[in-house]
Amino acid sequence: MSPQTAVVSARNLRKVYDDFVAVDGISFDVAPGESFGLLGPNGAGKSTTMRMIGGVSQRTSGELNIMGLDPEQHGPQVRAHLGVVPQQDNLDEELKVRDNLIIYGRYFGLPLSYLRPKADELLEFAQLTEKASAKVDSLSGGMKRRLTIARSLVNDPKILLLDEPTTGLDPQARHILWDRLFRLKEAGTTLILTTHYMDEAEQLCDRLVVVDKGTIMAEGSPASLIREYSTREVLELRFGSERNATVGAELTGVGERIETLPDRVLIYANDGEAALEQVSARGLRPLTSLVRRSSLEDVFLRLTGRSLVD
After folding, report:
1. Over the range 249-258, which residues count as b (16 or more CB within 10 Å of their CB) and which as e?
2. With the C-alpha atoms ordered 19, 24, 30, 36, is the resulting torsion angle positive or negative?
3. Nearest residue to 99 via CA among 133, 140, 143, 145
4. E strand or H helix at 114, and its extent?
5. Whether the Cβ atoms of residue 174 and residue 67 lie closer than 8 Å to each other
6. What is the pLDDT of residues 263-282, one digit of tens each?
7. Which tens digits make up the pLDDT trace of 29-49?
């Protein structure tokens, strides 16, 4: 993909606060209609990157183009095409649900003749029609998140920025939200999201960059990253906190690679069950064992030497 065809293009993007480098020279392109993710732990520079894309934080150096425009030079034009879902819901708790959409739309100068039917359409999309007249502070966390997304769509944005969209939600609420985002993607909206949830990145992203300490560690589709940096399966063993640290030497030669974490030992192998048989044949008896498919968590561990949730 060339920068000319990309809806978002960053080159050597850098953001420094005093002596702290939050984003350290990252480059990426996002294609129209793509779901693009920034995956990394808290403090990796993901939200800072989103604020620069959204034009609310000035970059220290580098180039950034949104639909061919520099957000620092053409902030209002860029923001007219963006929908922003911040990390924390910033709804007006005192207003009714439907009024949150209409009043937000007025900030864009949109007429009421457009906003009234648009608000009803967005409430239906967010599965909040029955809550239209309810006060926002009566909604559950998942409902507030869906309302925040509905509000971000009031100006029919071409690009939707989602910063940690499901943090703090229970599994059911997360899945409902994922379904709404799938529908937007199917309709051609470009999604750019940050997350530290590996399952969310695998579910939602066509392509992603793994970010750590302000730099890009790897880029690709979830499946291609797992193929490149991990094995097909992982055997998780728990020997107890004291034994985990010392058992590694006795496992040498089992699988392709071994990672020792404080609470478990990971053996990377294309056949996890065969690896477990080898462990048993050596007379080792873990307290628990689990064979699973490799995930983006394993990619991050391979690239950085630590877990995403550290």
Report:
1. eebeebbeeb
2. negative
3. 133
4. helix 112-125
5. no
6. 899 999 999 999 999 999 99
7. 999 999 999 998 888 999 999
> Which residues of the chain carry a pLDDT beneath 70?
1-4, 309-310
CA distances from 261 to 15, 43, 64, 237, 251 (A): 33, 21, 39, 10, 14
Residue 276 structural domain:
231-293
Residue 291 pairs with which residues in a beta bridge?
235
Q: Say if 302 falls within a structural domain.
A: no
Residue 203 shares a structural domain with residue 114: yes
Distance separating alpha carbons of residues 265 and 239, to the nearest angstrom: 8
Q: Which of 165, 125, 120 is nearest to 145 (CA)?
A: 165
Of the candidates 200, 198, 218, the one whose C-alpha atom is nearest the C-alpha of residue 209 is 218
Query: Does residue 214 form part of some domain?
Result: yes
- Are 8 and 70 in contact by the 8 Å Cβ rule? The answer is no
